[in-house]
Structures are given as C-alpha cells and as structure tokens.
Write a structure and sequence with these properties.
With about 325 residues, the chain is an alpha/beta fold. It has 2 domains: about 130 residues, Udp-n-acetylmuramoylalanyl-d-glutamate--2,6- Diaminopimelate Ligase, Chain: A, domain 1, CATH 3.40.1390; about 160 residues, P-loop containing nucleotide triphosphate hydrolases (Rossmann fold), CATH 3.40.50. Helix content is about 35%, strand content about 25%. It has 10 helices and 16 strands. The strands form 3 sheets. Strands 6, 7, 8, 9, 10, 11, 14, 15 and 16 form a 9-stranded mixed β-sheet that branches. A 5-stranded mixed β-sheet has the order 1-5-4-3-2. Helix 4 runs parallel beside helix 5 and helix 7 packs across helix 9. The longest helix has 21 residues.
Length: about 325
C-alpha cells in the first residue's frame, strides 16, 4: 500500500486535526513513512546528530518559545541543518501559535510544508499517531471468513466449497457476529495484534452456495455484524482423510503466521454429521481459557501422570 502524502493528510483529515497550510503548497507530495512524530528541540538548538528526519516534526509551545528567544542567525543555521534532510515530511505548529518568521522562511527555502493546528500538542499527537498507525499498518487480504465468537475473532479457512460460509451462517444464527465473508482484510498493529475487517464492497454480505448473496444485516439485524475484530484463532477446515494424523489430545499447539504474528491454529476434519459451529464455539472458549493460563489437555495429562505414579508407588509397596 502506497504511503500517504502530506497533501492527502491535509485533504482527508483537515477537520479532524484542525489543520491549515501556512507554506509549502508545491511540496505536498512528500510522503509520510512512519506514525511516530518528533519534537525537534535538540535540533533547533544545533544538535542534529540523531535528528529523526523521517518523522513529522511537531513545534509545540516549548519549541515555539525557543524559536522566539533564539538569536536569528543561530536559529537560521539550525533550521538549515534540519530542513536539508530530503526525507522530512512536514512541520506542524500546534495551539494556533504565531509562526516565527525564520521558521517560515526556512520552510519556503527548503520547500518543506509548514502546517498549523488549533489543537494542543498532546491531543494532536494522539490523533495524528492513531490515524497514521491505521494507514501505515502492514495489510494482507486472505481468503476466509471472520466471525467474532464469544469476543474472540475466529478466522475460518479452507478450500472453496468446504463449508466456511455455511458454518459462519450457523454461528450467526447462534448469536455470534459476522465480520467478513470470503475476503478478510487484516492489519498488524503494535503489540503483535492482528485486526481483521471487511473490504467496503463486501460488508455485511455473504455468499451461500445454493442461495446466492444474502444481506446478513437485514436478515439477522444490526447486532449480527461487526466492522472489525482482533484475530485470536485460526480454524482450518479440511476434508476428512483417514491417512492423516489429527490431533486427539490437544497437547500439540499448532500455529500459523499471518504477516509477522503467530496465531493459534486448529485443524478440523470435515465429514458428514459433524457440527462445525459447535466445534468452533468450543475451540474459541478453549482458546480464551488458554489465554488466561489454563490448558485443559496439560492439566489432564499431569493428573493422569500423578495417578499413574501413585499406583506404581502402591504396587511397589
């Protein structure tokens, strides 16, 4: 996905961020590569050795006061060192503070966009970081169905025609919430978090073989759909194959990698008579127990080993 430009940020979020352009109309094509911002206090003082030029530069009340009190010649030299970096996206003055003239001149000279916001610094940085984190997050689109089951995002995958949509439809009938059918758009957020959503044209629609396209929101109500959910479990539906070893005890914990995040994986063999919706409900509840530190299979195994050890002790006695 193409990185956003300063012009796109200004156009799309002008009202939310209370932004206006001071100078740099011809440099709005500069790209934004990171959601992190920088307070250039040291760079304004002439210490630019570790200046983070790739970030949006925030001129808050402290930096603004420094610019007003600094000797113009020294400030001009510091600004020249700052703005000569080609990768700097833009500068933003917060709190509707008046623009120091040396700063405006330097931005015009080095063709760097200079913006102003009426928001205070902390509020602006929070809003800007949230917007950019969402826009710049790594994204992948996977074939499958995403359902929120007991508050856990369950990604159901498998070959075409194996019954993913029918299984999701049964889960919705049982009171769970559909996020996306057929295509799931997944974003990786900070903290190894995967958020799954639905591409705009497919929202609240589902394709069921034999029925065609259905509108889940109209059929089951607004409470049956959700814009996004954090993915905590992947259910892989596979046609039953008696030659394959399927998990029986639950001691082996399968995982799969989506983008850079390892997600628990459960493989479910599909055969006539199996209630897949119930199996997915139980798998979701079991995964929530695991996230709280309780592993049913390991507890059963430890109890069994302790019982066998006690019996051996009695036999030896």
């Amino acid at each position: 996905m193409k990185n956003p430009t300063v012009g796109e940020l200004l156009k799309e979020h002008r009202d939310r961020l209370k932004l206006c352009l001071i100078t740099g109309e011809k440099a709005l094509e500069r790209q934004i590569h990171t959601a992190e911002v920088n307070r250039p206090g040291l760079a304004l003082a002439g210490h630019s050795a570790h200046f983070r030029a790739e970030r949006i530069q925030i001129i808050g009340r402290g930096e603004h006061d420094f610019c007003l009190k600094s000797p113009p010649k020294a400030l001009t030299a510091s600004l020249a060192a700052m703005l000569s970096y080609s990768g700097i996206p833009c500068l933003v003055i917060t709190r509707n503070l008046k623009t120091p003239e040396p700063l405006a001149q330097a931005c015009r000279k080095y063709k760097v966009p200079l913006l102003r916001t009426s928001l205070d610094t902390a509020t602006f940085v929070g809003e800007l970081s949230a917007l950019l984190e969402d826009r710049l997050a790594p994204v992948v689109r996977l074939h499958g169905v995403l359902v929120d089951v007991y508050g856990l995002g369950v990604l159901i995958q498998g070959e075409a025609g194996i019954g993913k949509s029918e299984c999701a439809l049964e889960l919705v009938k049982r009171g769970h919430i559909l996020v996306s059918d057929d295509i799931v758009e997944i974003r990786q957020k900070h903290g190894q978090v995967l958020i799954g959503g639905c591409p705009e044209p497919l929202k609240h629609y589902m394709e069921v073989r034999g029925l065609g396209i259905i509108d889940v929101k109209l059929l089951f109500g607004i409470g049956s759909i959700l814009n996004c959910s954090q993915i905590g479990l992947v259910m892989q539906l596979e046609m039953w194959n008696p030659t394959l070893p399927y998990e029986r005890s639950g001691l082996n914990r399968g995982t799969t990698k989506i983008i850079d995040v390892e997600i628990p994986l459960v493989r479910i063999p599909v055969s006539p008579g199996r209630n897949l919706a119930v199996l997915i409900e139980v798998a979701a509840l079991n995964q929530r127990l695991k996230s709280q530190g309780y592993f049913s299979a390991e507890t059963f195994n430890q109890n069994l080993i302790a019982r066998m050890s006690a019996q051996r002790g009695r036999s030896a006695g």
